[in-house]
Write a structure and sequence with these properties.
Strand content: 15-25%
Distance between the termini: 46 Å
Largest sheet: 9 strands, mixed
CATH superfamily of the largest domain: HUPs
CATH architecture of the largest domain: 3-Layer(aba) Sandwich
Radius of gyration: 26 Å
Number of strands: 18
Bound molecules: xanthosine-5'-monophosphate
Strand order of the largest sheet: 2-1-3-4-9-8-7-5-6
Shape: globular
CATH class of the largest domain: Alpha Beta
CATH topology of the largest domain: Rossmann fold
Helix content: 25-40%
Amino acid sequence: MDQLIIVLDFGGQYKELIARRVRECGVSSVIWPGDTAADKIKQTRPIGLILTGGPDSVYMPGAPKCDSGLFTLGIPILGICYGLHLTAYALGGTVAQCAAGEYGRTEMTLDASCPLFDGMDSRQVGLMSHTDQVTALPAGFVAAGSTRSCQNAVIMDRARAIYGVQFHPEVENTPNGTAMIRNFLYKVCNAAGGYDIGEYEARVIDEIRAQVGEERVLLGLSGGVDSSVCAALLAKAVPGKVYCIFVDHGFMRKNEGDEIGDAFPWRRKLRLIHVSAGARFLKLLKGVEDPETKRKRIGAEFVRVFEDEAKRLGDIKFLAQGTIYPDVVESGANKSATIKSHHNVGGLPDSMAFKELVEPLRGLFKDEVRMLGRRLGLPKALVERQPFPGPGLAVRIIGEVTSEKLGILREADSIFREEVRQMRDRPDQYFAVLTDTRSVGVMGDFRTYGYTIALRAVKTTDFMTCEYAHIPHKVLKHTVARIVGEVPGVTRVVYDITGKPPATIEWE
Ligand code: XMP
């Protein structure tokens, strides 16, 4: 088997990010439950273990524990935050609540001779988020890093290759965090590197086959990157068994509904079903202003359409979706707070006629999905496509969705995208929003009263955070002139320069 890092999960919000950083450093990783038996881990022969953070205090009753046999397997271990506490506690050290917790970017003094910090300055910044700390070290351990209020911010036992850090090396707020993880992999676990997305592909194809067996699968295809990559994977894993259903809910961008079938490269290999359901969806949104209600209604109706098709095709039990990791986090399915119900996740109704969901991209980030798409041979234009919300323009129209508003937004959005496409250094995502604000304008000698269009363009790699894009004023000016000149019903256009956080990319 290829070299593997097992990430043991104790409920921390960054577990996927840890697994992703390991992959980024060229080593395969999987996430397993924190209480996995040491014997099972031994049989898998990973080159290292990473114990994640978590919200609990190790000394409280019911706090998640690991099998203490892990520490005698001779496999290198890195404990992060709660994982550090667990390591210290299990090996006879003590952990207690500190007088003052540490939250945010914190100055640290590190022992530069510790292999984790090889090649680094002893002054580093790390993201801290804790109220507990290690107050007495277990036998054999020494402190290899501290902050003003935390003596044991890093602990190590070189002989047993067991390390623990109080900060989070996996997040961008720890500037040298990825380098520290790389050091753990290459200097402590003796990784050989060489992992690429092909390994993920092979593993996930095996998993799809094991899950689906001889059954057929219905895939919700939107024409975006995620569902297209999902289709390609399914076509490889269970050829001939995949039905792709494209539901045109009437909230697509200009010409998009018609183009979907043409742009899709496996038309001949997969069965593509095109359902036009615009009127049905628009009726559902009559009088609805709340964006979450829009998402839930559209999500539920999608599944009803899928169920109808599945019945028509003769009892299909599996529904596949291109859900990716950021969708899972933001929909609150990962124990974090719900930000919005991403169409693939929180938008699904509680009861469905399908037996199981197939979501092979659930552990990946957007740039990794694109990498996989390239590997699977998808055309460049498709792989680099901007994300587009499942509920489409319905969530880019603030307030009630009507066919008049849809018409206005479609035109304005098409103009903006046309103009930005001509730029050399293009933003990662750009689109128009129809706000619910109407205001007085003047055209010729006449008073007008129309909608305000907001333009949004952002720079981002993971779509979980972003900065606004610096679009040249010339492009903005030209876009505004075209929108107010060519789209009746618009009197005003604004450009949004808010980042995420505090805003989100979409405008709901
Ligand atoms: P927000 O607005 O949460 O969006 O900052 C983050 C990214 O996700 C896209 N997005 C979606 N993608 N289904 C998707 O596949 C959805 O329901 C959905 N809603 C938002 C959004 O366009 C941005 O790129």
